[in-house]
From TrEMBL:
Gene3D superfamilies assigned to the protein according to its UniProt record, in alphabetical order: E3 ubiquitin-protein ligase SopA (2.160.20.80)
Protein known as: Pentapeptide repeat-containing protein
Coiled-coil features, chain-numbered ranges: none
TM ranges: none
InterPro entries membership: 5peptide_repeat
Keyword Repeat: yes
Organism phylogeny: Bacteria, Bacillati, Actinomycetota, Actinomycetes, Kitasatosporales
Alphabetically ordered keywords of this record: Repeat
């Protein structure tokens, strides 16, 4: 059942205060690299391997991340702005106290990742894979998510603010204090039965009625 009888606990937003940064000049990422206090501006990182790398107090602005390998990477106290790319691999990565602003991404792999105190603001992300990921204190704000996959994920204190969700998959997901009331558009294609632990508006309830009925196996017919 949908829980709307109490106010959900609000997400804690990151407070990123970057120090004076030094321009990244090494040319390419290296696996398990250590990047501290660096600015990556309009850097083409497409196809590079930064698996297991650590980014602390960094800014990535206007960078290309097509097929960039960042699995098991750790991104902490950093701002990613205007990044773009298809097939970026962040599987099992850890993002903590991160702002992701005006991203243009497609097919980003974040399955098994851990996101804590993360804001995703603006931009558009197609086919975001968050299967079995853990999201805590995450805010999606003013962005467009096309067919995001939250299958098997755990979402705790997650907010969707002026955010468009198209074709969301919540199969086997666990939701705790998830606030969907301010989503600009809420379209759930699978896993509507997992909405326990979320709060939606009355208008959203009406919009979701056919999906909820299907999830419950409820047949709706005209009066006899």
């Amino acid at each position: 059942m949908v829980r709307n009888d109490r106010v959900v606990k609000p997400a804690r937003r990151p407070e990123v205060r970057l120090p004076e940064l030094v321009a990244f000049t090494d040319g390419e990422l290296t696996p398990d690299g250590d990047y501290d206090g660096l600015e990556f501006r309009d850097t083409d990182l497409a196809g590079q391997d930064g698996g297991g790398a650590r980014f602390l107090d960094c800014a990535l602005t206007g960078c290309a991340l097509d097929e960039t390998q960042l699995h098991h990477a750790r991104v902490v106290d950093s701002v990613l702005s205007g990044i773009r790319g298809v097939g970026t691999d962040l599987a099992e990565a850890s993002l903590r106290d991160v702002e992701l602003v005006d991203a243009r991404l497609g097919g980003t792999q974040l399955h098994g990742a851990v996101l804590e105190r993360v804001v995703v603001r603006g931009g558009k992300i197609d086919y975001l894979n968050l299967r079995r990921a853990r999201l805590k204190d995450v805010v999606f704000e003013g962005c467009v998510l096309v067919e995001p996959d939250f299958g098997g994920a755990r979402l705790e204190r997650v907010e969707f603010v002026d955010c468009v969700l198209k074709g969301a998959d919540l199969t086997a997901a666990t939701l705790v204090d998830v606030d969907l009331r301010r989503a600009a558009e809420l379209d759930i294609t699978r896993g509507a039965d997992r909405l326990s632990g979320a709060v939606i508006s009355h208008a959203q309830l009406l919009d979701l009625a056919p999906v909820l009925a299907a999830a419950l196996g409820l047949r709706v017919a005209e009066d006899a």
